[in-house]
Amino acid sequence: MPVFGKAVLAAACLAAIGIFSPSGFSEAGSVVRAAEASSEAERAGLRPERRSGCEEDLALIKEELDRLSQEMHHLRRDVARLREEVSQPGLEEAMAGVGFIFGLFGVAFFLRARGSGRTGPGT
User: Fold this and answer.
1) What is the pLDDT of residues 29-64, one digit of tens each?
2) Residue 24 forms beta bridges with which residues?
3) Of 41, 54, 56, 119, which sits most exposed with the smallest number of CB within 10 A?
């Protein structure tokens, strides 16, 4: 069964036992009520094999959620590390600073030479 089909089946199973609603997961109290309702359904003889399929799908969804949560944790850590690296000056910025200083000295020497009345080299 394709992944999308499994997700739809799992959502239908969760909606059937009252854990999932279109607006999202409900509070923990409704999970307890859903567990009680499913045990009542089992006692009434209402398709326990379908309920076990839903439980398997729910377990798969929880495993996938845990895996995605771990991946998101790693991604957040990597993004934080990259932000830190970008915020620190690198070789390019250091060379630009050195060039700026040399430029200031060049302007100062030019103005000094112009002010002292020299017209060219060696004069």
Assistant:
1) 454 455 555 555 555 555 545 556 788 888 899 999
2) 21
3) 119
What whole-number distance in Å separates Cα of residue 123 and Cα of residue 120?
Answer: 6
Q: What is the number of helices (H) and of strands (E) in the chain?
A: 4, 2
- Reported as type and span, the H/E element at residue 30 is helix 28-44
Is residue 35 in a domain? yes
Neighbour count for residue 63 (Cβ, 10 Å)? 10
pTM over cut 0.70: no
Non-local (6+) Cβ contacts of 79 within 8 A are: none
Per-residue pLDDT tens for 104-117?
999 999 999 888 76
Structural domain total, the chain: 1
Does 123 map to a domain?
A: no
* Whether 14 contacts 58, CB under 8 Å: yes
